[in-house]
User: What shape does this take?
Amino acid sequence: MSGYVVKVGKKGELYTPKKLRTQAGLDPGSEFIAVVKGDEIILRKRKTIINLLEEGAIATISEKEIKKERGMLEKELLER
Assistant: This one.
């Protein structure tokens, strides 16, 4: 794991080295999630819809199963 020095500007901006941005795949406007754990800050690149669509499926469902679930939901909504 590489370590980088990141500076904080007067208005709270984070100034990151170009090598870090390149390695993490951060472009201008990229968003990330910051998690604080004690005295550590963990930054994770926020996935875009494009990233999620490019990933493999985590589950599969058939057309028959979708129709069955839809029917159950419609029935439930009509009963309310």
Q: What stands out?
A: Residues 7-79 form one domain. The radius of gyration is 21 Å. The mean pLDDT is 90. Residues 48 and 54 are 10 Å apart (CA to CA).
